[in-house]
Write a structure and sequence with these properties.
Layout (H helix, E strand, L loop, with lengths): L5 H19 L2 H15 L9 E3 L12 E3 L8 H19 L7 H8 L2 H10 L3 H22 L2
Antiparallel strand pairs: 1-2
Helix pairs in contact: 1-2, 1-3, 1-4, 2-3, 4-6
Length: 149
């Protein structure tokens, strides 16, 4: 089986983020949040214009909310990695305590090994991202405790 393309990786990461987020909020909010995030990040990562999110969750004819055009496969892996890292990290931070302690680990558990392998080859290490997230939370907790001895 051939390795997934960048467009497939992006689409599956976004679908996974929406799936996990919708369990912690609701589906319309999760889709809208990802759509808004993609639009914000388009300013820095112009290729994200090739990602279309249909937020019409009440239209029964729509079975797939995310469309990633194949032209995105020509974008450098470095740019795709930076954008995916920003999308995952920002989603994690936006959900805050609703995301749960192991939000990134959930992403890693939901994605297939093929996608995880391609992501790792591209330079996205979800294990490292989880560790960074935990350290950030610990730093916040310590800062709060120092405020109120």
């Amino acid at each position: 089986m051939p390795s997934p393309e960048k467009s497939d990786v992006i689409k599956n990461v976004l679908k996974t983020l929406i799936s996990i987020s919708s369990r912690k909020t609701d589906l319309p909010y999760a889709i809208m949040s990802i759509e808004e995030l993609i639009k914000k990040l388009e300013l820095k990562y112009h290729f994200l214009k090739l990602v279309q999110i249909n937020n019409d969750v009440y239209n029964e004819e729509i079975t797939d909310f995310i469309n990633v055009m194949s032209d995105i496969n020509t974008v450098s892996s470095t740019e795709v990695v930076q954008a995916l890292h920003a999308i995952i990290d920002t989603t994690n931070r936006q959900l805050g305590s609703n995301a749960g302690h192991f939000f990134i680990k959930e992403i890693r558990n939901k994605l297939s090994d093929d996608y995880l392998s391609v992501m790792k080859d591209m330079g996205i290490d979800l294990g490292l991202m989880q560790l960074e997230s935990e350290i950030s939370r610990l730093e916040k907790d310590l800062a709060e405790r120092k405020k109120y001895p």
